[in-house]
């Protein structure tokens, strides 16, 4: 469904990703793990369109999207969340979710100023999309709350809701569990599983929490120093000597 193939990323002569990649199957939850500086987020940034690789390509449902802009990838069904949320902190939850639908907006500033039927139709459509994911992720009580000041776990769910409002086929999540309490991690993990099972959405998670990865994911790709050093089912990867070496040393 989604293939990152022989990806190479360089920053001023420093190789961040060295001929790395992965293959995601429909309905799968895949994790990319590895120590700090392994190149995980750089690889994810290539797949989501924020970085252009020096070498390699990205295929989505058989189409080469290596040079496709991020907003066009969103329209194709590839959504993204971020490690630090990147939410509009002085907007409400529902406004943040609707903001994720901007690539689909089809009215001008003039339409907005005069509140034309075209503008009203888009706002109604976007609000309906937002309400569906608010129901799905149980964000009802926070609907009109300003995002700033909400608990970290709620902010992560709002970030996921904004991605899901785009009706994606694949969601890329960069360290979704970072900074969360155990209870918040469990809530977010349940939400990911429910979306995966009820909507058939596939996930690619860059994650450091190995306990979450082992419980949640179907397939694991391990990176170290920009390269893929192991991949397979969680139980197999957890016992791979190369993975143990990368995490805890010889």
UniProtKB/TrEMBL annotation:
GO MF assignments: ATP binding; ATP hydrolysis activity
Cellular compartments per GO CC: plasma membrane
SUPFAM superfamilies associated with the record: P-loop containing nucleoside triphosphate hydrolases
Protein name, as recorded: Probable branched-chain amino acid transport ATP-binding protein LivG
PANTHER family reported in the protein's UniProt record: ABC TRANSPORTER ATP-BINDING PROTEIN (PTHR45772:SF1), CONSERVED COMPONENT OF ABC TRANSPORTER FOR NATURAL AMINO ACIDS-RELATED (PTHR45772)
Domain of life: Archaea
Keyword entries, A-Z: Amino-acid transport, ATP-binding, Nucleotide-binding, Transport
Purpose: Probable component of a branched-chain amino-acid transport system.
Xref: InterPro entries: AAA+_ATPase, ABC_AA/LPS_Transport, ABC_transporter-like_ATP-bd, BCA_ABC_TP_C, P-loop_NTPase
Organism: Pyrodictium delaneyi
